């Protein structure tokens, strides 16, 4: 087994935006316009609930917030498995799905949320609309790194393992259960930790949102912390932060550590690790007679029955069903209706954008450049410390045992709750507001890189590590020949999701309301936040589409070429 590491990429020099990208951008523009038209019909005044700062309300608030997080995570995991599998199994589907994924992860959800909320409020009861909108917002903060990692793991499965699955004629179900999911298990667990932490970052925005006289607040831990911060109630802030820390520690001990210990069985290596990940709760579950009985008499027979059922059905029946459905007149009628709606929405969105004066477009271009500079600087700072620390945690179990809970707690603390304290300190310095925006952006993106680097370092086969030590490969040579090639695909996934998160975080980093004052710094996120606060839907549409276009062009020009490099040059293969 060896690691391909020769840096000789042969990359296509195609256009940064192809027909798939264009179709997706037009669809997003049409949907934004449709949402705006529906949002206009929402009630002009919406009364929100009263958020109690009594510490006795915290258990109930914590339960509500955790429930929203769990619903969003389950939705994210399901979406990621289906979407990533479809993109990785077909080059044709990939040409549409990956540009769409680029667009979706680049959509500044905090600019799209007012349209979603107002549209749902016009169509559904307010309580249902606000809950759905909050889950959607948390979902968008959790799903993209899971989807990108799952796609990356599918396209980097060693050719030898894929050939074995083909030789044994595995059905799609068996290939998924026996090869693809186990191969990606460790990385999926680490990215799940990151997704959960990322959900806390946007929890406050998800539970407290107002548009003019419309109050969309939800009772929960995020709204409790935000209300306490606005009121300057230090005691309430401490109570809320302590409750959040308790939840984080409980999840670490009873969910994430057991999953990481369970995931040790899926490592692709021929030498057992000296100090594998451990969990006292996982070992306790292993000794449970009830769970062993359920595994033997329920889980195992059910999986065996599913295996047998899918093997018998095979691909022929699925293919025949798809073919029979695909040729119906109804499908073509639906496609024609969709095309007509897309065309109408695109034309109306274009007419709306043409009403903006040229000076406004010039201001958008300058703001975009300012935000892009902050994104690049934040990413470079994040890489400077997350790569060495992530490799240390991923390759040294003792360091992981000490640092993993600390990192998870730090990643899960909602930076938006702590930001006002940093803002008050930094405002006294030259360029203080710019530094504050950069700091909040960094606090929101660095964990995406760190957790992916940890997953990549933890996946390095132990036998390769022993071989490098036997050959006395140390220092920079060790990093160049083993560590960097091994973590390269994971690092690309982390940077892609981090950059998308940075553009989203700019909306809250460049426009801050605290203590009755509004602090702004030039940037695209600031323009989006101002358009949202003022209800200027034309400017909101223009700035949102600008952010999407910039992120998608960057992905097509740069990130996807690195994805191809990871697939072709940095993959574990049996040779």
What does this structure look like?
This protein is mainly α. 78% of the residues lie in helices and 3% in strands. It contains 21 helices and six strands. The strands form three sheets. A two-stranded antiparallel sheet has the order 1-6. Strands 2-3 form a two-stranded antiparallel sheet. The longest helix has 38 residues, at 289-326. It is globular and about 65 Å long. The N and C termini lie close together (6 Å). The relative contact order is 0.14.
Summarize the structure.
By secondary structure, the protein is an all-alpha fold. It is built from 21 helices and 6 strands.
| Beta content | under 5%
CATH-defined fold name of the largest domain: MetI-like fold
* Low-confidence blocks of residues: 1-15, 315-327
Total strands: 6
CATH class of the largest domain: Mainly Alpha
Mass-distribution shape: globular
Q: Radius of gyration, Cα only, in angstroms?
A: 24 Å
List SSEs in N-to-C order. EHHHHHHHHEEHHHHHHHHHHHEEHHE
Secondary structure topology:
Elements: E1 2-3, H1 19-39, H2 58-89, H3 91-106, H4 109-123, H5 126-155, H6 159-167, H7 172-201, H8 203-207, E2 210-211, E3 214-215, H9 221-231, H10 234-262, H11 280-286, H12 289-326, H13 329-353, H14 358-395, H15 397-412, H16 415-426, H17 432-458, H18 462-470, H19 475-509, E4 511-514, E5 517-520, H20 524-534, H21 537-569, E6 572-573
Antiparallel strand pairs: 1-6, 2-3, 4-5
């Amino acid at each position: 087994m060896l690691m391909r590491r020769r840096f000789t990429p042969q990359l296509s020099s195609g256009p940064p935006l192809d027909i798939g990208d264009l179709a997706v951008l037009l669809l997003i523009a049409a949907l934004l316009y449709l949402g705006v038209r529906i949002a206009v019909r929402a009630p002009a005044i919406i009364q929100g609930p009263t958020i109690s700062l009594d510490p006795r309300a915290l258990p109930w608030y914590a339960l509500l917030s955790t429930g929203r997080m769990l619903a969003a995570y389950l939705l994210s995991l399901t979406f990621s498995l289906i979407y990533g599998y479809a993109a990785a199994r077909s080059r044709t589907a990939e040409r549409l799905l990956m540009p769409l994924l680029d667009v979706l992860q680049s959509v500044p959800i905090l600019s799209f949320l007012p349209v979603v909320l107002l549209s749902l409020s016009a169509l559904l009861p307010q309580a249902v609309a606000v809950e759905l909108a909050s889950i959607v917002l948390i979902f968008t903060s959790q799903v993209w790194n899971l989807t990108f990692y799952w796609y990356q793991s599918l396209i980097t499965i060693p050719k030898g393992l894929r050939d074995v699955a083909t030789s044994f004629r595995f059905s799609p179900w068996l290939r998924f259960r026996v090869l693809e999911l186990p191969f990606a298990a460790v990385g999926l667990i680490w990215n799940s930790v990151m997704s959960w932490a990322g959900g806390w970052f946007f929890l406050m925005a998800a539970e407290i949102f107002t548009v003019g006289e419309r109050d969309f607040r939800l009772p929960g831990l995020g709204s409790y912390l935000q209300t306490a911060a606005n009121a300057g109630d230090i005691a309430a802030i401490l109570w809320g932060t302590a409750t959040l820390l308790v939840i984080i520690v409980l999840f670490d001990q009873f969910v994430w550590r057991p999953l990481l210990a369970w995931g040790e069985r899926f490592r692709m290596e021929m030498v057992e690790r000296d100090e594998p990940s451990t969990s006292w709760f996982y070992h306790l579950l292993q000794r449970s007679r009830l769970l062993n009985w359920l595994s033997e008499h329920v889980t195992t027979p059910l999986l065996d029955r599913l295996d047998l059922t899918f093997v018998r059905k095979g691909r022929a029946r699925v293919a025949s069903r798809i073919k029979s459905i695909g040729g119906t007149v109804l499908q073509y009628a639906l496609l024609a209706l969709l095309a007509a709606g897309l065309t109408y929405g695109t034309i109306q969105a274009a007419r709306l954008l043409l009403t903006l004066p040229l000076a406004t477009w010039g201001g958008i271009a300058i703001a975009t450049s300012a935000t892009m500079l902050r994104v690049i600087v934040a990413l470079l700072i994040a890489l400077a410390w997350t790569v060495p620390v992530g490799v240390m945690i991923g390759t040294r179990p003792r360091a992981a045992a000490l640092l993993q809970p600390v990192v998870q707690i730090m990643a899960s603390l909602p930076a938006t709750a702590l930001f006002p304290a940093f803002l008050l300190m930094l405002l006294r310095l030259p360029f203080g507001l710019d530094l504050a925006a950069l700091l909040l952006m960094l606090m929101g993106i660095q964990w995406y890189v760190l957790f992916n680097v940890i997953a990549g370092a933890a996946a390095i086969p132990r036998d390769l590590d022993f071989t490098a030590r036997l050959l006395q490969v140390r220092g920079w040579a060790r990093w160049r020949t083993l560590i960097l090639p091994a973590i390269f695909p994971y690092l690309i996934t982390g940077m892609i999701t981090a950059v998308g998160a940075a553009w989203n975080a700019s909306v809250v980093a460049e426009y801050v309301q605290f203590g009755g004052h509004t602090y702004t710094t030039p940037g695209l996120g600031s323009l989006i936040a101002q358009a949202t606060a003022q209800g200027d839907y034309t400017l909101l549409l223009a700035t949102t589409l600008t952010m999407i276009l910039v992120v998608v062009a960057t992905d097509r020009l740069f990130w996807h070429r690195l994805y191809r490099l990871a697939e072709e040059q940095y993959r574990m293969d049996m040779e």
